[in-house]
Amino acid sequence: MLEGKAQMKETDMPVKMQSHAMAVASQALDLYDVSDSTSIAAHIKKEFDKIYGCGWQCVVGSDFSCFFTHSQGTFIYFALEKLNFLIFKGASS
């Protein structure tokens, strides 16, 4: 596990949820090759949907841009190993 080696970039998540996000990302990196970012993202999304309810989105990669609206308290962006992780729950209109 790589917990503690993550570099937080931005978040509005509660601390406990932040820790869980980084732990799940670390677990995904243990299960999948670092080049398989689709499987890593799917693993994280499924775990967050299971624990915190449906509607979570996850983007994993070394270079990406995005623009989105999220529900307050559900956003985290961090780096772990060579990848960046963006996890959020979409805002309902």
TrEMBL record:
The keyword Cytoplasm applies. GO terms for biological process: microtubule-based process. SMART domains: Dynein_light (SM01375). GO terms for molecular function: dynein intermediate chain binding. Keywords: Cytoplasm, Cytoskeleton, Dynein, Microtubule, Motor protein. GO terms for cellular component: cytoplasmic dynein complex; microtubule. The keyword Cytoplasm applies. It is found in: Cytoplasm, Cytoskeleton. Pfam families: Dynein_light. Belongs to the dynein light chain family. This is Dynein light chain. It comes from Escallonia herrerae.
